[in-house]
Structure formats: structure tokens, C-alpha cells
Amino acid sequence: MGRAADTFSGDRGGVPASGRRRGSGDPVIVAEELSKRYGDVQAVDGISFSVERGEILGFLGHNGAGKTTTVKMLTGRARPTGGRATVAGCDVVTERDRYKPLVNLVPETPNLYERLTARDNLRLFTRLYGVSDTVADDLLDAVGLTADAQRRVKTFSTGMKQRLLLARAFVNRPEILFLDEPTRGLDPVSARDVRGMVRERADEGMTVFLCTHYMEEADELCDRVAFLSEGRIVALDSPRELKLRYGQRTAKVMLQDRTEHEVKLDDAKDAARLQAWMDEGQVLTVHSQEGTLEDVFVATAGREL
């Protein structure tokens, strides 16, 4: 990433030495019994939650769980059929024009102008937002696309397009950023770059609403995660607390005969088996493992992601 990332940091509060700041306690997104029905399909079924200023909240769930529909309602692109929600203190139905300048979105499906160059894509939006064209060049530097600024977007790889979408989302320096599956289809290096950019903005105090089905991504980035299943929130807490509450503690044990075994530490029979191996001096190595968010999803939603 280029040094120009600092150009858009803004002064949105301090960052503790330990890393990214957590939520400030001041909710900037509030949903109360929010629902959306499409004909006979209940896409979102009475969900309630809040997101604090400077927090990254992850929405996790299988395809069709209601993640994208929730984003559409919060960004004013779909009208709720029940309940209510506010973003930046504004009602998402009656006050959309008030909060739209304060937010931005990276959609699940890229919607760039592929016949234009990367620079022209960004300059179109700098002019729509009324900011200097130099912002486009600074942002291209920030996402590592300066060398490709004059290339038509249709020649870009999936990862390059995703970085350009993020740059476009930063044009208006939003207080709240919505991300819908931002790393889907990306190679590991591109996905790491995208996560790094998101983390930088969160460090600066931006509120991030992240929809994903990648458990590792949510575990790495999010202050809290909400699990959706069939349009309902089935769990909501920090990744660590959820893993402690629902995850299975396991250990991989290698014995002197070089055979490997996995034991469940919370299972009485497995714990007794491990103790017997230790008493007999058969244990060569033991590597404990905490529960995963995948374990949490299975425990709360009753299915694998």
C-alpha cells in the first residue's frame, strides 16, 4: 500500500497502542425487529442489533441467510416490510438523503465502468461527490494501482477490480462502510490486501459492516459477529466469547508409536483416555486447539456453513 493511505485518515478518535480501536459505545447503526419479505419468502425475519462507532461488525451466514438483504435495507436500496432501522441517526426509509453522504458500499457484484480506465472510474465519483480530482490519484496509490491507472478496467484481474472498488468507496471518506463479500473469488494475496485496507480504515475510526461467509476473515477482522440462519440472528458476540461458549476444545495427541489422535477435552471419555496415555508415558506431543467460528455456526444454526 502506498503512503497516500494517510491522506484519508481523518481525525476520528484515538487508537490504543494495542491495535485497532473497539466501538465507542455510540451506536451508529440500530435495527429493531427489522424484516423483509419478497412474496412468500421471508428473507429477513425480525432482527435486532446495533453497531458502535469505530466497530467492525461481521454478518456471517450461508447463501440466502439474509446478509445482502440486510445491507440493502441499511443502505436504502430496499424498503423494510417490518420493523425499523437508523443509520447515523437517520431513518433508513424516510431520511435516506441525509445519511447517504456519510456511507459507502462495496457490493458483492462489481459494478465498475469497465470501458473506462481506473483513473477515470475514480474521477467520475470525485466529481459526483464534489472533491478534488487529485483524490483519485491519491487513492490509486493507496490501493497499489498507480501503475495501472491508465488501463481499462476490463483488463483488470478480479483482485485489482476489488481494490478499485474499495478505492471508490473511500472517495467520500465515509463514516460507515458496508462490505458485501469483499474477498469472494480473490486469491490469498489479494484477499490479504483487501483485509489490510479494511483494517487500516477501522484503525482510523471508520465503522465497518462486513457481510461474509469466510469464518477466518470474520475471526481476524471483526470486533463482534452475528450469525444469520434463515433470516434470523442466532448468535451475536465477540468471536472469542462465541468460541468459548459454543466451540469444542480439542487436542491433537501424538503417541510414542507416532500415531496421532484427536481428543475432545470437554468429553469425559476422551479426557480419561488422554489421562491414561499420560499416566502410561505414551504421550509424545500434545497440541491444544480452541473452538472455531465454524463450530459456533453448527452449534447455533444446526448446519454447516
Topology diagram in text:
Blueprint lengths: L26 E12 L2 E12 L3 E6 L5 H8 L7 E6 L2 E2 L4 H4 L3 E4 L11 H12 L4 H9 L15 H12 L6 E5 L7 H16 L3 E6 L2 H7 L2 E6 L2 E6 L1 H8 L3 E6 L4 E5 L3 H12 L3 E7 L3 H9 L4
Parallel strand pairs: 3-8, 3-9, 6-7, 7-8
Antiparallel strand pairs: 1-2, 1-4, 4-5, 9-10, 11-12, 11-13
Describe the model.
With 305 residues, the chain is α/β, with parallel strands linked by helices. It has two domains: 3-11 and 18-244, P-loop containing nucleotide triphosphate hydrolases (Rossmann fold, 3-Layer(aba) Sandwich); 248-289. The protein has helices at residues 67-74, 96-99, 118-129, 134-142, 158-169, 188-203, 215-221, 239-246, 268-279, 293-301; strands spanning 27-38, 41-52, 56-61, 82-87, 90-91, 103-106, 176-180, 207-212, 224-229, 232-237, 250-255, 260-264, 283-289. Helix 3 crosses helix 4, helix 5 packs parallel to helix 6 and helix 8 crosses helix 10. It is globular. The chain starts with 26 loop residues before the first strand and ends with a helix.
